[in-house]
Write a structure and sequence with these properties.
The complex is a heterodimer of chains A (251) and B (697). With 251 residues, chain A is an alpha/beta fold. Chain A has helices at residues 46-53, 86-89, 96-103, 110-123, 140-153, 170-187, 198-204, 222-227, 232-240, and strands spanning 4-13, 20-30, 35-39, 61-66, 69-70, 79-82, 158-162, 190-194, 207-212, 215-221. Chain A is built from 9 helices and 10 strands. In chain A, strands 6-7-8-3-9-10 form a 6-stranded mixed sheet, with helices on both faces. Chain A has a 4-stranded antiparallel sheet with strand order 2-1-4-5, covered by helices on one side. In chain A, α3 packs parallel to α5 (140-153) and α5 runs parallel beside α6 (170-187). In chain B, the strands form 2 sheets. Chain B has an 8-stranded mixed sheet, with helices on both faces. In chain B, α3 (80-115) runs parallel beside α6 (151-178) and α3 (80-115) runs antiparallel to α8 (193-229). The longest helix of chain B is centred in the first third of the chain and has 37 residues, at 193-229. Chain B has 697 residues and is an alpha/beta fold. Classes of the chains: A alpha/beta (251), B alpha/beta (697).
Chain lengths: 251, 697
């Protein structure tokens, strides 16, 4: 596992005067073996930053480096991404085994590939019998685990998780969050964990960065940032969380 | 939701079922019969009747219809009936060949941008754009002149002429697939472009492409007949239908049938292709609707639930629901996503409805608002809104009442607002439709309501279109639309699920203040317990189409008695969640509405379940303190002696990974309950709070 550095990254859509600056000089590090939570409202540039890291959107300026090296634009990436909606991130016409096996990097033959898929399914706590299932036959939580297994199949150095629990039911969200923590502990994963849910980020991430209008406005250890927020936007975010103690008096 | 039912078998199995279903529709059956007729003729006729079709009878040249020659003979005395039949094979083969050429070239051009990027891809797109603008038949004529006469040349001419249309179709379809996350995931995973094309794109565009090609083949058949008719296609001694028409034309005034018969054949074959394509398209479209195929006539289900705990009519309730059921027909028989629920929303009160997806909460809302469309059926022993029974009776009167007194707010305001209409006019339409207000009055009311839902600078913003609003503003505008009249009840279905926390807070705040200011009652539906807890007084917890617990909101944390409610509350992490332990989770997956087992529907996932739970569905019991619960073990502490998972740093329940697609077998249930106790080591397990009245129910 290794470290991922964003240095003064700017992403613009369009050109000239009408250009939209989605990410505006963001600097952020994901240290080796740590989970960094990235929070912010929709449209703040979180997902754009993630897509820039895996080469799905081009940079306008700045640099993204893995262990100090630029990330190759073609071929197998050392960086993998898990998407928000497992319904659209798995090909409906491919079995679980085919989806995972396609990305698996090292197996040389069919038997090795099968063994690798079995290992990965085991890692995300899916039964081996699911290898031949199609996504339509799985629940949302199971699909998201397949998506995680596929990301792990590329033997990545860093994983980017983009709102991976947002489309799941709360009862299933817990199993995926537990899995993320477990994988981090077992494999020493470095991960950029994007979410708009502060409670979720607090639960999985040891470091947190707050993004607002394309800029990283605050970052640091989760406890410090959420316990003693400096930036007004972070304070507003924290105040907005519905908690059992903040119940408004009934009119 | 019925649309999310697990589909048994691999998708291909679903496809063959769809084909079978398509065959049962009138159009599908006609299409299949005509296609079979054309195919059979094409195969058999040349074998059986070539000799008779080519036999010259000098005695009867250009004869009219007779018993011997059903539609007469041509200038060489050959029997026209058999010539039309024999011509089927060549005509159909040429049409298929041309279609194949068109689709092949179209696929190459249409998917080229995937393989080659940069300016080549832009050039191809540009070229296709221009080529598609040329009329197809003119293009075919142009190519036919270049290639010269003859059937191969004609096949290429028509194929090339049809290619731009298919290229454009492939471009559009491919573009749609390229935007999917699974393509992005494959690219990140280092999958080569060629493999991307063959494994991800082609299989996913194949269905619409084949449907369009089939319909296209009908058109090509016609074009081919046209070319042959002009003498540019098939030339003697070979003959297709166009050639026969060409030969028949000279004698059309003496002998019209000679030209009309091959024309009729072209029509029949062309229709066969078109109808097959159409019914295939329709069958595929049906599948997208979640296979809600009405094959059984529904019988109204008997109320499945026990009657409501308290029988006294609570006066002042704006909405009273008793034994509400919602049923949908499926090929395997009717399913009941809502199975007899009873509740009331007091005037000015706020009631929350929580549950996992598929629990039936949204359908309950739709049923109350009379928005369940056929073939879905709503039943209830009582459904009273604002003192008026709204089930049965005159639908028009109900529509007026519901239109003026009930407001619905949905999850995604972008799909609920008309994108081509200014926000202000959309709001004004509500009072103009139901209140008979003038244009001016409507607009003024709209601006006033928009400022009431805290849209800054409402007089100017009312002129905006929905896309010019942010997500939170759209949702507030939707709420503003809801309060254009003077509603007695607002039903909000996951109104904040698509919104950020800060915006969510504003929207919930707004709902609260509208309720306070105008005394409007609120039925808030959410999968997130914390959202409901912020706004509501009372909470209904729904599982597998039934309400399993109703309680006051201040008892939700700590005072809930149904195991499902307790697990649901504990599963949501908040800012105080213990970081040292794994999150409590509910093992297994929600019981599918299509196969609800005997006994309590939650038994398979419940840590307290025993033999009684799996035998008998518990009835709703009122505890006399304003709470109702349906559970044999209400309020009992979860077993904390079952600890196989505690020693492991992070426990992941095995239930879901074991889950079989068809639901839980009874044997499975015991294991899920005892061995994988989901709450072992969680804050809930050792908690002394939840059970003051343990076991009393």
């Amino acid at each position: 596992m290794s470290r991922l550095d964003f240095t003064d990254v700017t992403v613009r859509f369009g050109s000239g005067r009408g250009a939209i600056v989605a990410v505006d000089g963001a600097t952020l590090s994901v240290p080796e073996g740590r989970i960094v939570g990235l929070v912010g409202e929709s449209g703040s540039g979180k997902s754009t930053l993630a897509r820039a890291a895996v080469g799905l959107v081009p940079l306008h300026s700045g640099a993204i480096a893995l262990d100090g090296q630029p990330i190759p634009r073609h071929g197998p990436r050392r960086l993998q991404m898990v998407f928000q909606d497992p319904n659209s991130s798995l090909d409906p016409r491919m079995t679980v085994e085919e989806s995972i096996g396609e990305v698996a990097r090292f197996p040389a033959n069919r038997a090795e590939r099968r063994a690798e898929v079995a290992r990965l399914l085991d890692l995300v706590h899916l039964d081996q019998s699911h290898a031949t299932a199609y996504p339509a036959q799985l629940s949302g939580g199971q699909r998201q685990r397949v998506a995680l297994a596929r990301a792990l199949a590329g033997r990545p150095d860093v994983i980017i998780a983009d709102e991976i629990t947002s489309s799941l039911d709360v009862s299933i969200q817990g199993t995926v969050l537990n899995l993320v923590r477990e994988l981090q502990a077992e494999l020493g994963l470095s991960m950029l964990f994007i979410s708009h849910n502060l409670a979720v980020v607090r639960y999985v991430a040891s470091l947190v960065a707050v993004m607002y209008r394309g800029q990283i406005v605050e970052h640091g250890p989760t406890e410090a940032v959420l316990g003693h927020p400096d930036h007004p936007y972070t304070r507003r975010l924290l105040a907005a969380i519905p908690t059992r103690s903040q119940r408004k008096p009934t009119p | 939701m019925p649309a999310r039912l697990p589909r048994p078998g691999r998708p291909a199995g679903g496809r063959s079922r769809r084909v079978l279903h398509a065959l049962r529709t009138p159009i599908g059956a006609t299409a299949a019969a005509m296609m079979a007729l054309v195919a059979l003729t094409a195969i058999v006729a040349p074998i059986l009747w070539t000799d008779r079709a080519n036999a010259h009878e000098t005695a009867s040249i250009l004869a009219g219809p007779s018993a011997e020659h059903w539609i007469g003979t041509d200038a060489a005395g050959r029997d026209l009936f058999f010539r039309v039949l024999v011509a089927t094979r060549l005509s159909v083969l040429l049409a298929l060949g041309s279609t194949g050429i068109a689709v092949g070239i179209g696929l190459l051009l249409g998917t080229a941008p995937v393989l080659v990027g940069g300016w080549v891809s832009r050039a191809v797109t540009w070229f296709v754009g221009i080529a598609v603008a040329f009329p197809g038949f003119l293009l075919a004529l142009f190519f036919a002149v270049i290639f010269g006469a003859g059937q191969t040349a004609a096949a290429f001419a028509i194929g090339l002429a049809g290619a731009p249309t298919f290229a454009r179709l492939c471009q559009t379809l491919t573009g749609g697939i390229m935007n999917r996350d699974y393509v992005a995931a494959a690219r990140i995973g280092g999958v080569s472009k060629l493999r991307l094309l063959t494994r991800h794109i082609l299989p996913n565009i194949a269905e619409p492409l084949i449907v369009n090609a089939t319909i296209g083949a009908g058109g090509v058949l016609l074009s081919f007949a046209g070319l042959s008719f002009l003498g540019l296609g098939v030339s003697a001694p070979a003959y297709d239908w166009g050639r026969l028409m060409y030969e028949g034309l000279s004698g059309i005034y003496i002998h019209p049938v000679a030209a009309l018969a091959p024309g009729l054949a072209v029509m029949i074959a062309g229709m066969a292709f078109n109808l097959v394509g159409e019914s295939a398209a329709r069958a595929l479209g049906l599948a997208a609707l979640g296979e809600l195929v009405p094959t059984h006539r529904l019988r109204r289900p008997a109320p499945l639930a026990a009657p409501m705990g308290s029988d006294e009519p609570d006066d002042g309730a704006v909405l009273r629901v008793r034994d509400l059921t919602v049923a949908f027909p499926t090929p395997a028989g009717p399913i009941h996503p809502v199975r007899g629920i009873s509740f009331a929303v007091p005037a000015g009160g706020a009631v929350g409805l929580v549950g996992e997806s598929g629990s039936g909460k949204s359908l309950t809302a739709l049923a109350v608002a009379q928005l369940i469309e056929a073939p879905g059926e709503v039943g209830a022993s009582e459904l009273t809104f604002a003192g008026e029974a709204i089930l049965g009776g005159d639908p028009r009167a109900h529509r007026h009442l519901l239109g003026t007194s009930l407001a619905m707010v949905f999850q995604d305001p972008m799909t609920s607002l008309n994108p081509t209409m200014r926000i202000g006019w959309q709001l004004a339409e509500v009072v103009r439709e139901h209140g008979g207000a003038s244009r001016q009055e409507g607009w003024e009311r709209a601006v006033e309501r928009l400022s009431a839902v805290r849209i800054a600078d409402a007089p100017r913003r009312a002129h905006a279109y929905p896309h010019e609003f942010s997500g939170g503003m759209r949702q507030r505008a939707m709420i503003g639309m809801g309060v254009m009249g003077s509603p007695r009840l607002i039903i909000a279905d996951e109104p904040t699920t698509a919104l950020d926390v800060t915006v969510q807070e504003q929207v919930l705040d707004l709902l609260g203040s509208i309720r306070a200011a105008d005394g409007v009652a609120l039925l808030l539906i959410s999968h997130d317990v914390s959202v409901v807890a912020t706004v509501c007084d009372r909470v209904l917890v729904m599982y597998a189409g039934r309400i399993v617990e109703e309680l006051a909101v201040d008892r939700l944390y700590g005072g809930a008695r149904h195991p499902y409610t307790r697990l649901l509350v504990a599963a949501v992490p908040d800012m105080d969640t213990d970081l040292a332990t794994p999150l409590p989770t509910i093992p297994g997956r929600p019981a599918p509405v299509s196969a609800i087992a005997q006994g309590c529907a939650f038994a398979a996932r419940c840590p307290l379940a025993d033999a009684v739970c799996r035998e008998t569905d518990p009835e709703m019991v009122d505890d006399g303190r304003g709470s109702r619960v349906a559970c044999w073990h209400a309020g009992e502490p979860f077993p904390d002696d079952a600890v196989p998972t505690v020693a492991v740093p992070v426990a992941v329940p095995q239930g879901e990974s074991r889950g079989n697609a068809g639901g839980f077998a009874a044997a499975d249930a015991g294991a899920a309950g005892a061995a994988d106790c989901p709450v072992a080591g969680s804050p809930l397990a050792g908690s002394p709070t939840p059970t003051p009245e343990g076991g009393s129910a």
